[in-house]
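explain this:

___
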Amino acid sequence: MKFIKKPFIVLAALTLSLSLYSSALADQPAQQENSGTTVPNPVVTGPIPSSPLGDPSHNYPQLATSTDLGKYGYIEEEFFFEGKATRYSTAQSFETATAISTNHPYKSRMLVRRPASPEKFNGKVIVEWLNVTSGYNLDAMYMSSYEHFLREGYAYVGVSAQRVGVHQGDKAGEPASGLKAWSPARYGTLDVTDSGKVIDDGLAFDIYSQAAQAILHPVGVNPLGNLKPELMIAAGASQSERYLVRYYNKIHPQTNLFDGYLMYLGIGDKLRTDLDTKVIKVNTENDLLVLGEVAARQDDSNVLRTYEVAGASHVGGGSDYRSNILIRDDLPVADISVCQKPALSRVPTGYVVNAAYEHLVRWIEDGIAPPKGKRIQVESTSPVVISRDSNGNAIGGIRLPQHEVPTATNTGANSGGGFCYLFGSHEPFSPEKLRSLYPNHGSYVSAVTRAANDVNKQGFLLIEDAKTIREEAAQSKIGK
């Protein structure tokens, strides 16, 4: 990782449905139990043997990566872990949680992608709360930054903590996308509901904590093999980001398992301000427009940075990485043809996420505070109206070269069926407009190079990713 010190897209593709959230406020018992502060260490088994990826039996990890990890000195393994979990309220609050009940049996899984040898390992572990909005276990944070993880030597662990990801399809009429229904032979023994007694994700917080405990302080099977973590970051996107906000506010003060938090694609919850653990939030224009992040804005502080990426959408386009895996695994693929505008912004927010990881690590390890990012300009908060230039592109915010040197109108706005409201839009400029903006190919490449260097110097684009953007510009047909 490098920042310049002198003078498409691997954006997480995920969806959101607030209807999947359930509050336990109406289900509070008359008497609460004291949960204590010690996180149990679960029993870990594995790695679980697998059939070849794409085998009709589905006897392999759901959404296993299609990347040739061996080329990078990495391996992928799946583990089951089980124990007894404490149930907490899933409702947002700034108060440290107390237990609703305890001793609920559970069994879940974690998916590990890690360097095969300690020499490749940088000592950092990213623990993702897997996103389950679409009914399966989406590794949104990995998909956003996997190239960065592989080149820098991070270990990655995806944790299946929520009911939908494990149990979707258990009931008649539900799509068979949850782990148990997707592969009964492989995942049939998993259960995160205590046999149906807890269906509000009240166990998810402790399940996530116990997975982290197994990584940090393994007893018996070590999910990281012979790797010893030096620093552990909690990460989550969209619905998982919401749960991580609640975890940070309610559970983290009791456990202190994570050294920092990377929260991506927020949906309107605020963080408590009396904790010392560092947090970086990365949001898109879409999150401000329709998901409540304008109302949830908080000032940067000695523990918080918020980065808002202009022109970007909650779900972005430009890569077949996700759709190809979904097709392989017989999982549903979103239909973007029903959207009113051409869907999926091409502004690659994942590059800002990559930079955020590096800033977070330096902030934790060396006390070097990350740069502060400009916020996207908002003309009105109710309804939210974003300031736009003559091309219809947002003003302010972090401005990646795809936005600062535009070839299209990229926004977080769209409408239509399904999840179109999350897909944003991408409306290419006409050939005539492109010629007026960039009379020749060299003028376009030079403008992109300047913009990439500027964002790199600001600290929001790593030099490796800036190089990729410059190469893409040089290979394009703009100005030819």
Remarks:
- The two ends are 33 Å apart (CA to CA).
- The first strand starts at residue 43 and ends at 45.
